[in-house]
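Record type: monomer structure entry
Structure origin: computed from sequence
Chain ID: A
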Amino acid sequence: MPQRQLGPFQVSAIGLGCMNIAHAYGAPVPREQAERLLLTALDEGVTHFDTAALYGFGASETHIGNVLAKHRSKFTLASKGGMAGVQFEDGIKRVIDGRPETLRRNCEDSLRRLKTDVIDLYYLHRWDKQVPIEDSVGAMSDLVRAGKVRTLGLSEVSAVTLRKAQAVHPITALQTEYSLWTRNPEIAVLEACREFGIAFVAFSPLARGFLGSADLDVNAFDPKDIRRAMPRFAPEHFAANLKWLPAYRAIAQEVGCTPAQLALAWLLHQGPDILPIPGTAREDHLRDDLRAVDVQLDPAILARLDEVINPRTVSGNRYNEQSNREVDTETY
């Protein structure tokens, strides 16, 4: 597995996003399936595992702690705080809370679930706009000094917010959605990351499964599937996006790879500072994704991909209005 730099860590060029094993696309996968997936990833050379307190309200971290704690020295562990499940009278709900005391508690809870003494890369999962970013990052820097985390990251923030955070404490990585069909980071965030030598971690690199090999049936999505609330999967936008999908798959066939591998290879070709973290609950999909490191794309193929999939051809916003208010995209 080729390696890339993630701040002070050298990790596999493709990591594993561990949301899928706990929530987001339907019912959580069985514990045994999650365990097999994590161990398969480690056996296949994955050394970058990304999770969060939010995922399954701690279930993803618990899986990682139970399965990978005894292999802790073999991989770089990233998790996130500032957005987690909070118990209310009518059940557990997702809450964005960037107050220092909450971030400290989130971190302690994550360390316990992950069965580790230190988290290598700790992200602010969402910027709580009620709390100055300087205060949240300042509290996270206290976690570094206390030896509970090694480095800090930010998720879904603008270039402006990144600069404010960087002035408080060095940021190792910025994570947001980036793929052929989500190009927001190209406006300003990637440039800011490169200015400071910050690694860019790309989540949802397969466009929430749209750029995978399977034909998606939006009507068959689980009732709890988060894509049901995403505009690009609404009937009118989904139909529009299906129109360019055959041309994309034809390029994959010409290159000699699967559609998923082509999407990941495109990202890897955007620069050595880009680290995709596809998520999956299936071992066959995992192995397929990892083979993307062997796919070489020449400039002509890259240009054709940009012609087929770009902000003009993709129909619909990536988030609905409520989710858009929760991310810091004003100056993307």
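Annotation 1: The first helix runs from residue 31 to 43.
Annotation 2: The two ends are 32 Å apart (CA to CA).
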